[in-house]
Amino acid sequence: MLSDNQLLKAKKLFEISKNSTFYRGKYINYEELKDYEDFFKIPILSKDEIIGREHHLLTKDYNQNNIIEDYTSGTTGKAMTCYHSIKERNYKAYKLWKNRRKNANILPLDKRALFSPYYAFLEGEKIFFDDEDNDLYLSNINMTDEDMKDYFNALVEFKPKWFTSVPSALYLFSNYILREKLNVEEIGLEMIEVNGEMLFDYQKNIIEEVFGKILFNHYGSRETWCLAYSCKYGNLHGYDEDFIYELINIDTEGIGELVVTDLCNNTWPLLRYNLGDKVKLLSHDCGCGNNSIILDVVGGRKQEDFEIDGWIGNSVIFHYSVSRINSEFGHSIKQYQIIQQASNSFLINIVKGHGYQTLHGELLVKEILSKIPIGINIMLNYVKEIENTGNKFIYFKKEVNHNDKR
Ligand SMILES: [Zn+2]
User: Fold this and answer.
1) Boundary-marking domain end, from 300, 330, 355
2) How much is the average pLDDT of 51-62?
3) Cα 266 to middle of ligand 1, angstroms
């Protein structure tokens, strides 16, 4: 159900969207949004409809000089251009910074360290200080023990107030700190913000064990920017005044694909846009006093689904299998990547962690086999490191091409 405020904003957005060539064609039968029911009759918008025609969504009054472009990373092979006006971007940035200020009094020019491959690609530098923004860049595509030793020393010297990272890199770094028994007090961090990937409980537990309860989760997308931000109770709150959150294709456990309407982008309207993330929506009260809807991001994106002879699974099951082994055997699997080489065959690349034994790999295979159809071949392959080629770590790759059955 929508609030009156959401409906009012949705009506306005719907009218504005009629100014774009894309929506004019799509909503030919939708004259006007009168009530809640009309809103839910708007057809769901898919990524596939937009790709290659992104600029057709722009509403006619946009000003070319006033527009910001973002590019989705295209992990599924299809990149997309997204647009905001400068004013809209500033509004969204303001909302995000409000959270950071509330959680740990973080301000835009405070010293920040971050895991990012940006300067490693641009300058070939593993560690790079950007003095304009007061940011210390550490390359998450270089994560050997030696690299991490250098990072730790650089952090102790720089003393950042906060840190941003994808969970996968910070998880590796936390394990390193734990193993080497380093003292994080020497860094003096006041807040950590993870973003860009789903945060798994096994990662959260280790990161908090090492750094304390200063971890916050920023959940968003390039298309919409920040969609939800966690509070000190660990609940991921949405912004009810800025977005409408819905689920479609809901399973028996209440998990569905997240569909959002962005109420603060009139430049490039997204109405009932299917982001594809697997989410549960909870709306119970939270001790922090924020009444906005709570999102539980439980699984990988729909795009990370894989198929075995008509059976559909999501790559998130591999995460849960690995985390089960790691919680039992003290993080003996340092890193992993799964490649579906054929419909019935998977290769698992494993970087051995401290205390790894062959038995752990065998148990992992057994665990995965118990979750997928029978007759599947899984091979383990031990590697020294797994190359990370971008900002996000790719846990799962498909080398098999299924025919498009739509
Ligand atoms: Zn809360």
Assistant:
1) 300
2) 87
3) 29
Give the H or E element holding residue 253.
none
In whole angstroms, give the CA distance from residue 187 to residue 146. Answer: 18
Which of 368, 378, 327, 331 minimizes the C-alpha distance to 352?
331
What is the tens place of the pLDDT at every residue in 85-94?
999 999 999 9
CA distance 77 to 172: 26
d(CA 319, CA 181): 26
Give distance in angstroms: CA of 227 to centre of ligand 1. Answer: 15
- Residue 257 has phi, psi (to 5 degrees) of -90, 135
Q: How far is the CA of 116 from the centre of ligand 1 (A)?
A: 28
pTM above 0.85, yes or no: no
Cα 211 to middle of ligand 1, angstroms: 21
For residue 207, how far is its CA from the centre of ligand 1 (angstroms)?
Answer: 20
Q: Which of 222, 221, 281 is nearest to 257 (CA)?
A: 281
Q: What is the CATH number of the domain that holds 39?
A: 3.40.50.12780
**Which residue has 């660990």 as its token pair?**
234
179 lies in some domain: no
| 284 and 315 fall within a common domain | no
Domain end, chosen from 300, 332, 354, is at: 300
